[in-house]
Specification:
The protein has 147 residues and is mainly alpha-helical. It has a single domain, classed as Zincin-like (2-Layer Sandwich), CATH 3.30.2010. Helices cover 51% and strands 11% of the residues. Helix 1 packs antiparallel against helix 6, helix 4 packs across helix 5 and helix 5 runs antiparallel to helix 6. The two termini are 19 Å apart.
Length: 147
């Protein structure tokens, strides 16, 4: 799991467990540097399909997550987002997870609600493929979460 249990409610735990199971089965490309992560995010959010799904303005700053065990997405205004990735979380899936937080920032009622999960699902479908998204959705359903 990405966060200590004291920071999570039941929905968070179920989302993280399903995600971890998907990554275990399908893997996730690791990026060796923040420069590579920045390039990946920049190219991802510039793709036409991404802009059609999320036309709202989003500005990303990718930073080191040194001293953390988990990645994060932070924003004060719902436009400018700081994504933090410790070395062990510089993987494609965790990047997609944090970008999904930005995509659902102004519409989601909870960090990992169905609006957020729809964003994750769309990103995983496009970037990791059908098998990965099917495994993820199956994990959510088994956990009693809508996909």
């Amino acid at each position: 799991m990405s966060l200590p249990p004291s920071y999570m409610d039941s929905m968070d735990v179920r989302v993280y467990l399903a995600e971890d199971a998907m990554v275990e089965v399908h893997g996730s490309r690791h990026f060796d540097s923040l420069t590579e992560v920045r390039r990946y995010v920049r190219e991802l959010v510039a793709q036409p399909w991404f802009l059609r799904l999320w036309p709202q303005k989003m500005v990303f700053q990718v930073r080191d997550g040194r001293g953390r065990n988990y990645a994060s997405c932070e924003s004060a205004d719902g436009v400018h987002f700081t994504l933090r990735f410790p070395k062990q979380r510089r993987e494609r899936f965790y990047i997609l997870h944090e970008v999904a937080h930005a995509c659902s920032w102004n519409t989601s009622n909870h960090d990992h609600d169905v609006i957020f999960r729809k964003a994750v699902k769309a990103l995983v479908q496009r970037q990791m493929g059908r098998g990965a998204v099917e495994t993820l959705v199956t994990g959510w359903k088994k956990a009693g979460l809508a996909a």
